[in-house]
Amino acid sequence: MLIDNFDINKKVFVIAEMSANHGHDINIAKETIKAAKEAGADAIKLQTYTADTITIDCNNEYFQVNQGTIWDGRTLYDLYREAYTPWEWHGELMDYAKELGLICFSSPFDKTAVDLLESLNVPAYKIASFEITDIPLIEYVASKRKPIIISTGIATLGEIDEAVQACKRAGNEQIILLKCTSAYPAKIEDANLLTMKNLRETFNVEVGLSDHTLGVTVPIVSVALGAKVIEKHFILDKSIGGPDASFSLNREEFKEMVIAVRNAEKALGKVDYDLTDKKKNSRAFSRSLFVVKDVKAGEEFTEKNIRSIRPGYGLAPKFYDSILGKISKKDIEKGIPLNWELIE
After folding, report:
1. How far, in Å, CA of 135 to CA of 103, rounded?
2. Is the pTM of this model over 0.85?
3. Distance between CA 31 and CA 38 in Å, rounded?
């Protein structure tokens, strides 16, 4: 599957999620994009909403955050007013990312956001965890026939199926499901990365990880389990503050993650039983059959005069039992590797 010109089946697609980590300063946003590129990201992701497109300005109990999160005590409207990325920045940020060779796309949170992103010709879309149950939005996004990455953090298996079917009804099968733990930050023990395999098998789609844990362990493990996409919150400097700062990686941490992910890819490699020249040379340190006591011509080979030892210049040890009891053709000194020319 291609996202822009990036083939996710050849290399893990690493996304730096900027989210609210710009402090409402477009220069910080641009510096963040540049830093993400330098840290090894393949893409930078925005979020496209305003407080008014995602909720309403209301402070009754329904709109108060009170779920044991880092945002408790605030209203949704207040939180999103702080966190949103101004829509008038989108074109400029996407152009800047493109100049740097970085793919830029976004998570839309309503149809007007999709329309804005379509006008900017984004190469893909992301559906956030808390929007996975918004089937009309998913159908509208999927109808644009671009790769659609869906986080599954709060969804039941049935709800994930509804989202996948919504994409297919819209004629879009370019679907990537991300395992996501919707806690901020999330605990490593709650990652349950084995779910990725089940998502792939159940829905016959590509899978990946949207990660909110601290550190890089979970992303690395996800690569070993077949993740094609890794998304991680990225911040230029945690001193910028903001709603997502506490569970975002800074430049050095993100770079460490990318290096580890790329090394994990190298380690996975391919199914390979071929012997390289280096491997063949190393076989000299394996075991083989040697004469370990002087043997005279006509003498019988026994457990006392031949053994399986290192190095590997003689016959393979698998021939040991069949050689016992056979006769030597000539005199053989101790330390000579055994070969068929020496055996009657």
Report:
1. 26
2. yes
3. 10
Question: Could you report the per-residue pLDDT of 38-58, keeping only the tens digit for each?
Answer: 999 999 999 999 999 999 999
CATH code of 337's domain? 3.90.1210.10
**Which of helix, strand or coil describes residue 293?**
coil
Residue 13 sits at φ, ψ, to 5 deg, of -90, 110
Q: Which are the contacts of 63, defined by CB distance < 8 A and separation ≥ 6?
A: 55, 56, 75, 76, 77
How far apart, in whole angstroms, are the C-alpha atoms of residue 2 and residue 196? 20
Amino acid at 137: L
What DSSP designation does 164 have? H
Q: Which residues are CB-contacts of 73 (< 8 A; sequence separation ≥ 6)?
A: 64, 65, 66
Question: What letter does residue 198 receive in the DSSP assignment?
Answer: H
Phi, psi for residue 111 in degrees, rounded to 5: -65, -35
Q: What is the pLDDT of residues 185-240, one digit of tens each?
A: 889 999 999 999 999 999 999 999 999 888 789 999 999 999 999 999 999 999 88
The stretches of 269-311 forming alpha helices (DSSP H) are 277-282
Using CB atoms within 10 Å of the CB of residue 97, give its burial: 0 to 12 exposed, 13 to 18 middle, 19+ buried. Answer: buried
Q: Hey, how many other C-beta atoms are within 10 angstroms of the C-beta on 95?
A: 11
Alpha-carbon distance of 108 to 134, in angstroms, equals 12
Same domain, 172 and 310: no
- Helical (H) or strand (E) element with 52: helix 51-54
Domain of 300, in residue numbers: 277-342
In a domain, 57, yes or no: no
Report d(CA 232, CA 243) in Å as an integer: 15
Task: Kindly give the pairing relationship between strand 229-233 and strand 206-211.
Answer: parallel
